[in-house]
Hints:
Family: Belongs to the PA-phosphatase related phosphoesterase family.
Structural class: mainly alpha
Organism: Cyprinodon variegatus
GO cellular component, one term: plasma membrane
Number of strands: 2
Membrane topology: Multi-pass membrane protein
Keywords: Membrane, Transmembrane, Transmembrane helix
Order of helices and strands: HHEHHHHEHHHH
Distance between the termini: 70 Å
Amino acid sequence: xxxxxxxxxxxxxxxxxxxxxxxxxxxxxxxxxxxxxxxxxxxxxxxxxxxxxxxxxxxxxxxxxxxxxxxxxxxxxxxxxxxxxxxxxxxxxxxxxxxxxxxxxxxxxxxxxxxxxxxxxxxxxxxxxxxxxxxxxxxxxxxxxxxxxxxxxxxxxxxxxxxxxxxxxxxxxxxxxxxxxxxxxxxxxxxxxxxxxxxxxxxxxxxxxxxxxxxxxxxxxxxxxxxxxxxxxxxxxxxxxxxxxxxxxxxxxxxxxxxxxxxxxxxxxxxxxxxxxxxxxxxxxxxxxxxxxxxxxxxxxxxxxxxxxxxxxxxxx
Length: 317
């Protein structure tokens, strides 16, 4: 009887051992598949980030081509006796280039960083993109869209400056000549002029009046931030807070452009064109590129309940 029991035990244990042996390769296969999926996900993330950086680089090529003096402006002439280019050259600027760029990017970037942080914490935002951290994902999309608009806007501005070559109001002062020294007949077209200024950089910059880079950049950054406040500042306790902040931002952009007229660095039409270009770029990026106005309802499935993580109280970034 004991011998029979031993035989039955051996018969039962044998299939169990075979089952364990057969499960081992299956576990190894699942581990390999998991590693392969993880590796492919990392490769996809790197590819998408590299693609975004490539798009930023391509969009900024005209801007850097102008800043690095790779291409010179069009050598436009002028009408002898034209009073619009006889204003004095003022060396001091109310808003220099460094302050404009640092202020525009810092103010908008800081507001976006704070806004996305509050959005993630208050609305329990999750991420379905290749960046799993919800804050990093939202910040990446918003700042990436904003910086892309900066590159596009400034590239368009510099292309216009190089292609048109309109003379600034202080061109003759920078050039170091007068109509009397040129001995030209009033009303005639002067195709070329030999400037007496020893600084070629100032002379070249005096040929880049249209359109105003200060006006376009200030209008883009401030109006984009106004759009961002419209999408993210949803607190209804103070009804006039949001429009007041938006008004101040647009006022700051308008003031920046007006200083370029009062300092004789741009014609009024240059500043107006800069306003229009900056406003159109901000509208294009905010509405069609940035996710700030995108609805999250399409991310909800039919079987989700109000208590589920993807309920209307939960935002997908």
